[in-house]
Amino acid sequence: MHSSIGLDGDFKVKTALERTKVEDIFSYEGCKVGRGTYGHVYKAKRKDGSDTREYALKLIEGTGISMSACREIALLRELRHPNVINLQKVFLSMSDRKVWLLFDYAEHDLWHIIKFHRAAKQSKKLVSTPTSMVKSLLHQILDGIRYLHHNWVLHRDLKPANILVMGDGAERGRVKIADMGFARLFNCPLKSFADLDPVVVTFWYRAPELLLGARHYTKAIDIWAIGCIFAELLTSEPIFHCRQEDIKVSNPYHREQLDKIFNVMGYPNERDWEDIKCMPEYSQMTKEFKKQNFHNLSLTKYSEKHKIKADGAAFALLSKMLIMDPTKRLTSDEALKDPYFSEDPQPTSDVFHGFAIPYAKREFITDDEEKEDPSKTAAAPSTVTIPSTAAGPSNDVSHNQRPAVKKIKLEPGQPGHGHDYHGHQAMHGHSGQSASSSSIASNNAGPSRNYPAQQQQPRY
Length: 460
Prior knowledge:
- The chain is α+β, with helices and mostly antiparallel strands.
- The chain has 13 helices and 15 strands.
- Keywords: ATP-binding, Kinase, Nucleotide-binding, Nucleus, Serine/threonine-protein kinase, Transferase.
- InterPro entries: CDK, Kinase-like_dom_sf, Prot_kinase_dom, Protein_kinase_ATP_BS, Ser/Thr_kinase_AS.
């Protein structure tokens, strides 16, 4: 008995000596670019100079690793696609029981890109966003989601903050879908997803079937979220912006968010969505909403208001992604074959093709700084002109939603606040969203609108 313990001890000592230590390989001190309840994220480079690439090192908060993080790591190690973030290595530090994750480093994300253009337009500064950039962004997002769906993976938390874009380098302008903290395999679930995760997807991007308490849902929820992102790229504001806080509770029904959807799309017609009567929260919806209050509203009227041509290919694709009935919603395969992508300008592998990247690089943060420091956001320059590759007005992009928060602990955590480079959370379905308001003027003429205050740190 004693000899076996000795052998086990010797094995532990040997493996500890052979185990690669992250601090021996990478230089990252003073290069923190993100933090929150999930942990800390650092911009890192190899000490030996064997390559000049930049990496993202994520130190998971607390000691050990949660089951949720284990699921996400296992999933990321299996996924390999140009438009899905790449988990390169996991480092385990036995001395302090810390877990480090090594990722590709992305200098930009859609949240910052859209915010840049919104701020510039708000200040009436000249910024031109080519149609090719919006089209290329959408094409790459759909390509990445098609790969996930073909491999039976639902992302379940798509939003601009989770869409990274590579900066200058070998993969310049390439989209990387990140934050797989909510991702789940859906080929053979042992239980209903509604039992495992009562609430998924940040609520501005949450499909109506989720809001109505669907017990079973499909990859159509990801398509709805992408449709919301597409609309945001085209109109410079979130299409279903709701001012109320997103408090993740066990009940998925969200009256205010449904009201926002109905005010854009109109009241759901039972002839168009036959299964709506089967939704668990259908009776609650009929009690709180009256069809006649929304009879003059439609996506077409919304698009006309925001100067999206109703007879254009962009609106045609958008309308097929934002269909109330999930069974009629476009799939990623069908979306990629849409005529919108056949028209000029053609989508490119570099979304910044043809112009210098005008967006500021991520800034380092210190422990003395506030977690939410508005000054960390780079302001738009007075004049930035990005050459358009197509005739007609350009599309300004902006983003005003607060990313959902992932909390990393060994025990089930409470909703927290903070960005995540690759947002792990202790228990799926306990992602919180704060909505402390700041007044941000609308891009359009008229009164200003209040949007939730934003965090500036990267979300992977």
